[in-house]
Every structure is written in structure tokens, then in C-alpha cells.
Write a structure and sequence with these properties.
single chain; alpha+beta; Cytochrome p450; three-stranded antiparallel beta sheet; 13 helices; 13 strands
């Protein structure tokens, strides 16, 4: 690793001022990617949109990264050997279809209503703990077909990860092993007696692959939605009047929240044939990482990019990436956001941020977002 290269960390990818300076300096930058590997990051919309669909760039790292493990570390789930990662993506993408997501909508609505019913209406409540963190996990359990009596294994495992910060904490071995054991049994049951759920749909594959695919969905599928809902509600409640003034504007509102928040940091490719991007020659095998938050605030593509403007005439954001390696859960994340925001606007049109947000968090993952669902008629 070349220690002279600028280090790009998780914090860098969320520092809008740093990303703006990099974008203004040029579309392509050679960097040290968090100590893992050297690579190039793209910070401009035009360069990123072209790179993400260029056939000379592939989705998987060309180098092998060690043997498969039955219970991979969480970080390893995102850096699997190319063949294994592609196999898992194919397995998931064949079954996680827009039709399946559309069929799940009544259950997504049910989970949203259950959580909101449990929140106090007239006094401050922590929206993160009460809704934006548990909601995507409940939806994933519905999607996968995890029955209520098994969901404690999923919650113990998933909540070992700091949702809104996107920074991993150590998941205890006992929680990981307990969940893996439970899922192995569930996969076997669904293979013998299929139901209308994602595990059943994937159960004909190698059980080890099904387990890895489920764990990848659990780890990758809740944090971006938690961040989108947390920051999205905060943005909407900071405006007046109400969450969404006109129900017909729900879709563009969610799309603008996706652009402005961009809950997923990177969309990555690897060079299978040397090429030039933004005037820079990239050698075969190198990593190309599109920094989606920078791309989605490129002023050359989005006028006044730091403003929340759901009435933009065009919003070609890349919050879910682009091309064959776009986010597998894009349709599900959109559905969750629309159900959550639409339900809040319909049920609690006077919802407000609490005047006192309490003490500032002392460490990552302890932030609260205090809201009052129904403060009553101000008159």
C-alpha cells in the first residue's frame, strides 16, 4: 500500500465539505481506500454515470480473497471472492423482484402501523429507537419469512450494528452463532415445506449460499433505510408545513430525500481492461469507486445541490448506483420510505420535532431524534 496516497475513510465519505473540495479539484482521485487497497474514486455525476455502465468495468474484485467460511465476519460479506459474491447476487436478484416487493406492501404497511401505534402520540419519543431502526428489520423479517418467535435472533444480531451511523460494532459470537443456527433450521424447514417468502424461493440452492445471502441482506438491508428515514424525517420536519403537503408529491419527495441523503456511500467496479476516465488512465485490475454522496450533489447536474427541492424538474440521482451492479434492495428501500413517510403524513400531519432534543450523543450510535407525533391543535 502506498502510504503517500490520501486516505479515504468512512468519515471522509460523509464529510460533504471534503467531498466538495475533491469534486472541485477534478473527477478522479487516486487514494488509499480505508487501508484495504489503493483505488480511484469518482466524485462527478457525468464520470460516475458513464463508469457504472462501462462494460470494461466489472462488479467484482479480480483477486481471490481467501477460502469461503461458513460464518464470515461481517466486513467479509462485502469483500467476498468475486465468484461467490456474484453467485449470491444472482440468487437474490432472481427472487427480490418488483412484483415480490409489491406483494409485500400490505405487510410493510402493517409493520409501520404497529410501530407507530406503540409510540406515545402527545409526548416526545425517540423516532430512531421506536421506528427508523426497528422498521427495516421487521420488513426484512417479513420478506424472508422469519416467524415472530424467531425474530429475537435477528434483532440480537442486527442491532449489534450501529444503524444510523453505518459504523460496525462487534457482534458477539453468541449472537452470530445463535442466529446462524436458527437460520440453518429455518432454511431446512422452508426447503421441506416452502412458503411465500424469500428464503423459500432461494431454498433450492446450496444451504450455505442461502445463509450467506440472508446475512448479506440483513446487514446491508437495514442500515441505509434507517439512515434514510432518520435524516429524511428530520429534513421534512424542519420545513413547514407538514411532512408532505400533497400526497401526489410523495414520490418526488422520496426521490429528493434519496438524492440529498444518499444512504449508501459507494458503488464500486474493477477495471478488466485499461481505460481512461476523466483524463486519467486506469490500469487493469484497479478499483473504481463512485462516491455517491458527492455525485448526487454535483452542481453541474443538480442546480443548488445542497437544497432540498422535491420539485426538481429532473432528478437522475445515483443513490442506488446504476447498471448491472445497482442496489439489489432499491425497490424495497423505496417502498419502505414511501410507506413510512406517507403513513406519518396521513396519520400525524402535525408531527413536529421536540423542542428539547436532549443531550448531545457522546459516542456513535447513541443519537436520538425526539419527535411529537401529535402535539395537538396549536389554536
Amino acid at each position: 500500500m502506498d502510504s503517500s496516497l490520501p486516505l479515504v475513510s468512512v468519515e471522509t465519505l460523509r464529510d460533504m465539505d471534503a467531498l466538495r473540495r475533491m469534486r472541485e479539484a477534478g473527477p478522479v482521485h487516486h487514494v488509499n481506500m480505508g487501508g484495504r487497497e489503493p483505488g480511484w474514486i469518482l466524485t462527478c455525476h457525468e464520470a460516475a454515470a458513464k463508469a457504472l455502465v462501462d462494460p470494461r468495468l466489472r462488479g467484482d474484485a479480480p483477486q481471490a480473497q481467501g477460502p469461503e467460511k461458513e460464518l464470515a465476519d461481517e466486513e467479509d460479506l462485502f469483500f467476498l471472492p468475486g465468484e461467490q459474491h456474484a453467485r449470491l447476487r444472482r440468487m437474490i436478484s432472481r427472487q427480490l423482484t418488483p412484483r415480490r416487493v409489491a406483494g409485500l406492501l400490505p405487510r410493510i404497511q402493517h409493520e409501520a402501523d404497529l410501530l407507530l401505534d406503540a409510540m406515545p402520540a402527545a409526548e416526545p419519543a425517540d423516532f430512531i429507537a421506536a421506528f427508523s431502526r426497528p422498521f427495516p428489520v421487521a420488513v426484512l423479517c417479513e420478506l424472508l419469512g422469519v416467524p415472530p418467535d424467531g425474530r429475537r435472533h435477528i434483532r440480537d444480531y442486527v442491532f449489534g450494528w450501529i444503524a444510523e451511523a453505518g459504523v460496525g460494532t462487534v457482534v458477539t459470537e453468541s449472537a452470530g452463532v445463535a442466529m446462524a443456527g436458527y437460520l440453518k433450521e429455518l432454511i431446512a424447514r422452508r426447503r421441506a415445506d416452502p412458503r411465500d417468502d424469500l428464503i423459500s424461493a432461494m431454498s433450492a440452492a446450496d444451504p450455505r449460499d442461502v445463509l450467506s445471502a440472508v446475512r448479506l441482506l440483513l446487514v446491508a438491508g437495514h442500515r441505509p433505510v434507517t439512515r434514510l428515514l432518520t435524516e429524511g424525517v428530520e429534513i421534512l420536519l424542519s420545513r413547514r408545513p407538514g411532512l408532505v403537503e400533497d400526497p401526489a408529491r410523495l414520490d418526488p419527495t422520496v426521490e429528493e430525500l434519496l438524492r440529498l441523503i444518499t444512504p449508501t456511500a459507494l458503488s464500486s467496479r474493477y477495471v478488466k481492461e485499461s481505460l481512461e476516465i476523466g483524463g486519467v488512465e486506469l490500469p487493469e485490475g484497479g478499483g473504481v469507486h463512485c462516491v455517491l454522496a458527492a455525485v448526487n450533489r454535483d452542481p453541474d447536474r443538480f442546480p443548488d445541490p445542497d437544497a432540498f427541492a422535491p420539485d426538481r424538474p429532473a432528478n437522475p440521482h445515483l443513490a442506488f448506483g446504476l447498471g448491472h451492479r445497482h442496489c439489489l434492495g432499491a425497490a424495497l428501500a423505496r417502498a419502505e420510505a414511501k410507506v413510512a413517510v406517507g403513513t406519518l403524513a396521513r396519520r400525524f400531519p402535525r408531527m413536529r420535532l421536540a423542542a428539547d432534543q436532549g443531550p448531545a450523543p457522546t459516542r456513535a450510535g447513541t443519537r436520538k431524534l425526539l419527535v411529537v407525533l401529535d402535539p395537538g391543535d396549536p389554536t
